[in-house]
């Protein structure tokens, strides 16, 4: 192999390595935060409830 072809091959390997490093360092885009779900069944109720009342009836 001639000196010019050897240098061209080395330059090609360096470029391919640089492209690989850049592609791996970018990584996936962050996912958006899912919306929070609040439920009166899970939250502490600050008002007293009458006896027999269902805290999960959706009112």
What does this molecule look like?
There is one protein chain. The chain is mainly alpha-helical. The chain has one domain. Helices cover 41% and strands 0% of the residues. The radius of gyration is 31 Å and the shape is rod-shaped. The model has no long low-confidence stretch (mean pLDDT 76).
Helix count from the secondary structure assignment: 1
| Structural domain tally | 1
SS content category: mainly alpha
Using only C-alpha atoms, the radius of gyration works out to 31 Å
Protein name: Multisubunit Na+/H+ antiporter MnhB subunit
Short note summarizing the structure:
The protein is mostly helical. The chain has one helix at residues 3-26.
